[in-house]
Amino acid sequence: INTHQGAVPPWNLAEMVTLHDNDGHAQNAIGWEVLYQDGQRHHNQGTLIFSDFDINKTTEMEMKMNLPGLGVRTFLWSLPIPPLPE
Q1: Are 58 and 21 in contact (CB under 8 A)?
Q2: Residue partners of 13: CB distance under 8 A and separation at least 6
Q3: Residue 70: which residues within 8 A CB-CB, separation 6 or more?
Q4: How far, in Å, CA of 41 to CA of 53, rounded?
Q5: 29 and 13 in contact (C-beta within 8 Å)?
Q6: SS3 for 69?
Q7: What is the pLDDT of residues 26-60, one digit of tens each?
Q8: Beta bridge partners of 26
Q9: pTM score, two decimals?
Q10: CA gyration radius for the chain?
Q11: Which end of the chain has fewer CB atoms at under 10 Å, N or C?
């Protein structure tokens, strides 16, 4: 998460994110861990934690982030995600 105006609020993204699969199953994040925050609070990096998700039974994952005052941001992944080249 980043901004170039002001600071990123101290959001708990676990309360704002839902993960969906193409079968209609949805789950909320169960945790958010900030791994990096710059000194001006313009950039936050972290890990969202979800319960087990069977990626062998789905072909797409969609993450929806409902950010206060900014609306919903959607990210979509097709599965399987190919491995990185060696």
Answers
A1: yes
A2: 1, 29, 32, 46, 48, 65
A3: none
A4: 32
A5: yes
A6: coil
A7: 999 999 988 877 766 667 788 899 887 777 778 88
A8: 20
A9: 0.74
A10: 15
A11: C
Q: Residue 68: is the preceding peptide bond cis (ω within 30°)?
A: no
pLDDT tens sequence across 59-71: 889 999 998 888 8
Q: Is 80 or 75 the better-scoring residue by pLDDT?
A: 75
Q: What is the CA angle 66-72-74, rounded to 5?
A: 110
Structure tokens at 39: 């000194």
Closest CA to 23 of 50, 53, 64, 52: 53
Would you give the end-to-end CA distance of the chain in angstroms?
29
Place of tokens 């087990």: 52
Separation of alpha carbons 56 and 7, rounded Å: 39
Reply yes or no on whether the pLDDT at 86 is more than 90. no
Which position has the higher pLDDT, 74 or 44?
A: 74
Q: Distance between CA atoms of 4 and 19, rounded to whole angstroms?
A: 27
